[in-house]
Amino acid sequence: MNSPRDIAAGQADKRDGASRGSAGVVVALDVGGTRIKAGIIGPAHDVLLDRTRDTGAAEGPDEVTARVLNLVTDLLAEAEAGGHAVDAVGVALPGIVEEAAGRVVLSANLGWRDLDLAARLAERTDLPVAIGHDVRAGGLAESVLGAGRQCRDLLFLPIGTGIAGAMILDGRPYAAGGYAGEIGHLRVHPDGRPCGCGGRGCLERYSSASAIAAAHADRTGEPVSAAEVAARVAAGDPDAVAVWREAVEALAVALAAYATVCAPELVIVGGGLAGSGELLLEPLRASLAARLTFQRVPRIVRAELGDRAGLLGAALLARASTESP
Amino acid sequence: MNSPRDIAAGQADKRDGASRGSAGVVVALDVGGTRIKAGIIGPAHDVLLDRTRDTGAAEGPDEVTARVLNLVTDLLAEAEAGGHAVDAVGVALPGIVEEAAGRVVLSANLGWRDLDLAARLAERTDLPVAIGHDVRAGGLAESVLGAGRQCRDLLFLPIGTGIAGAMILDGRPYAAGGYAGEIGHLRVHPDGRPCGCGGRGCLERYSSASAIAAAHADRTGEPVSAAEVAARVAAGDPDAVAVWREAVEALAVALAAYATVCAPELVIVGGGLAGSGELLLEPLRASLAARLTFQRVPRIVRAELGDRAGLLGAALLARASTESP
């Protein structure tokens, strides 16, 4: 049911993503700045085998490429040894990715620039290869296999060092040439804190794990993690409560804007900060609901796939690449 | 290339919308609160004949329905007299519309509630019938036939008494169950003017034609139209300039949020206020560009189809309804 262009673009469609059976087993990689998560994924989206390796970004982009190519080769050998015929390879990574062309435009974390990654992998493996943006791949996985299974319009919102967004609209990942979903840079305060993007008052400067830790340190002089701030909120510490409230309010401002424009049924919060669970989600639901009038009020839930979302998303992209147009 | 669901939903897809030839001639209506614009539309999206009638909303919802049904019957007769075989009927209207079911949930302007409009028209005409939301239909028409012909990701932004938005994302109209695109209710001032929606600081309270007229009247005591305010801006009147600047800045704040999330290539400004042309668009472009850092900066242009956008969009929906799944 995907249009040829969707397939050409390496985009899976959640409407049929879960039922694809034409590809049996795929090899998937989620290449992060520090570690590569890799796996052999079965037809029921089950992880038959997984491996984690250091990315080696400090040793330069060619070393990262070599590790990715070698890891794929190793996994193909392991699959063969296990009697699995691999149908395709999928890779998720951070940065600007031209999914249709299989090309990495720029990945600052990995040192890659203008890399024909899909072509390199296809040459090595003789298999169909799909590449995709890690957060969008994770959002696809949550929408097909995780917390968003029942929804067509949703936002996957990983909150960690930064804040990203993957938009699933009408059942499809929406990329806008790689520019979509920059929720972390919605301006939540007209003249707020300066942001690394060059703007001011960006959400990321209030509600990311790093911003929460920094705001708490500014206030108390104590350098503790966002997780520790959360623990202190639970214990009723007034400084932690004030920092937390500011982070929650900023998230609600940003989600109110998102709800007004995109009207999702569901917001799936992921990343490290999702670990604080209802301590974050319950006041966020209340603050968002208070800001909306006639708009559709989205449910807000925690992600289900944890740090496997990118890997499972890469597998979905691999699977989609084997579909005939 | 549309998926069956898109067809079932009566949604056209701009990727093939312009090239559809299976339906030759269609009858289209754009039902507004005051007037119904209707026409016989040919295979090249040419208006073969058009008619305008009063909506008759003051006489109650049944009268509006009767006028719509009779107008369609009249046009079918005129088409037959002219030797045109009509393949389908399309109707665009304001309100909450379930396009897939062909049902009007609520149209405050027309007095309709829970009306199976498509079924009523199909019964009368024995033809495929599509219904759609007027602004989204207009956005579809601008994207297929008007200013957005070359773009896949765009926002159609009619600015009149209110401010609406029709989103075309990845070449498809995005509806989110009818809730999408409420740009007029993005909050552009944290504690701004109260809005009829129950919120505060909504864009519509700063940048709609009615808000511009009201702000000018508040400032000067002179009740003049937004068009007159624009004329005074062009003449350098300082009160008019101040009011205009506030309206432009509020639009830029809202479009910056939209660009951060949806990253359109193009914003098409329509509605009455588009009549002021570059007086509006030039400072809007400058203010938006100053607010964006890494985001994709959309082009901002004036709509091309004027008050025929809804009618031509209804014709596109009609045409889509004749496509086999």
From TrEMBL, chains A, B:
InterPro entries: ATPase_NBD, ROK. Belongs to the ROK (NagC/XylR) family. Keywords: Kinase, Transferase. GO terms for molecular function: glucokinase activity. It is an enzyme of class 2 (transferase). Its EC number is 2.7.1.2. Coiled coil: none annotated. Gene3D superfamilies: 3.30.420.40. This is Glucokinase.
